[in-house]
């Protein structure tokens, strides 16, 4: 057998050489990846310590198995074994991981060294993964999964060294959603003293987006939450100028609540992982404003047809999880805003 | 029984007063609308001449019924009767219509007069519709459906008077996709002499987007089509500086083809109604560029996770079907570009 390093000395920077099926698709769309332990010359292998499953994926697995931790664990193991990556077939989502660099191909452009403790900032849905310990240290009852095994990073993968001033759990939890505050900051900065409404504001991406909006020059930040308990948490964090209760799936209730709190918004940021929030977000946004959808539960056609149906001249952005410098920026927000740090730490 | 005009003299501008089920949702998300013939004071009733079904919706119906026209017609009638609107339950999409204004509520802000021949520019998915002729004049074999019946327009609905210098069929066909060229023009205008790639360039929204890109200052336009026959049509139209053949679902093939034709693109416009084109469009776009998704087959999560997985710093827009002035702009493109007019007329 030809050693793959001889057959194809440089891998595709986006990992096409690791796709086994179907042929010709990108790793994220693949049903099976090649988890070959030997590296192509521009790859990096990382020894896994901990997986952080995507929240929507974990919730689906928990519901499906009625909170039976052993069954959840068995299904995760089965997915990884059959696909060569952790991608929930129902939600399509994955998560991320923490580990230690084990080997660096001589032509890797990532700038990593053996022994670096890193978090991967590309999704597990496109990262070749082998689990070697049967997830023996995980009870199946939380998104953070202690694990032993390895993953492969490609030339264009992204991994960030873990900071010294916070626990790996906190850093990983922050990096998991670090695309949201970076894009929010970029969009808010294009407006002059805008009103910014964040829907799902007490959550991870929501609280970071609120902090980013304020730092980027928002004149007023409105945090929308679904329950009184979350309202109290968000009030205490001091991250929002106004905290309002509304069901984000009810367009009239949501837009009325945002209007009463100082809206309509110039920028609306949707961070709630439930379907049906498109119309309300559009209706809460001023003409000429922007809606950023970060929720994976967003329906493309509901957003497109919804805006058309409302004759709403708003820009609607697919929340891209990658913005250069996003991890460092999100970590700096946690350092600079006690309220963000508090909301994250109580989730760990 | 209280006359609804007395109970609620002014309707909601977005039609909330016509939603029967489920309660509290916008008309587009409703499963059933109130088709009451009497108008609220800010509404308009239009006598229908012709429906123009959304292409994806019609294709789904045709496939489902194996091109049995009578069965397609029966299902359309059933959908309209049960929902009070034409919204394909599978695709979620509707279409638009041509008709003549029959009655104008005294407080309607739309500026229409009885007898005006108009096309509605909001989707049929949110427009109360009654069909009165059993679609007797339609054989179920085309998207353009002769029909007699009526629709209700709300305060914030949009309707455009039909122009005198083209047939209603042509005008309707243009207005159906008029959001695409307007948004393309706006985005292209933000770049300095950009390269613009249009995927699905020989179609309706594709050809209009190509013309819009050139008018808005594109330095180079690249039209991507799937078949030789479409390539020849597009070549003959003169709308693209380069015409390339590629399967848009194959990210590597698509991005290689765009690169060979002068890419990567600063602006990529996705106009093909097939799933799985997100990765290729992202991979065909330069860092700092923009991808506009007009296809209703776009998957939100595939776009968001795809860009993250490729570490692609691109702006991704949900193609909003509404931009102020979109209908007049699209009609002006048809008047100014013989190539666009030719591609449209051969579809009628």
Order of strands across the main sheet of chain A: 6-7-3-4-5-8
Strand composition percent of chain A: 15-25%
Computed over alpha carbons, the radius of gyration of chain A is 21 Å
Distance between the termini of chain A: 47 Å
Greatest interface by residues involved = A-B, 56 and 56 residues
Shape category of chain A? globular
Q: Please bin the fraction of helical residues of chain A.
A: 25-40%
| Oligomeric state as shown | homodimer
Number of helices of chain A: 12
Q: Please state the average pLDDT score of chain A.
A: 93
The main pleated sheet of chain A reads as: 6 strands, antiparallel
- Poorly predicted spans of chain A: 1-8
Global structural class of chain A: alpha/beta
> What is the string of helix and strand elements of chain A?
HEEEHHEEEEEHHEHEHEHEHEHEHH
Number of strands of chain A: 14
Textual characterization of the structure:
2 copies of one chain form a homodimer. By secondary structure, chain A is an alpha/beta fold. Helices cover 33% and strands 23% of the residues of chain A. Chain A has 12 helices and 14 strands. In chain A, the strands form 3 sheets. The first copy, chain A, has a 6-stranded antiparallel sheet, with helices on both faces. Chain A has a 6-stranded parallel sheet with strand order 11-10-9-12-13-14, with helices on both faces. Chain A has a two-stranded antiparallel sheet with strand order 1-2. In chain A, helix 5 packs parallel to helix 6, helix 6 runs antiparallel to helix 12 and helix 11 (326-336) crosses helix 12. The longest helix of chain A has 15 residues, at 69-83. Chain A starts with a helix and ends with a helix. At the A-B interface, helix 8, helix 10 and strand 14 of A face helix 8, helix 10 and strand 14 of B.
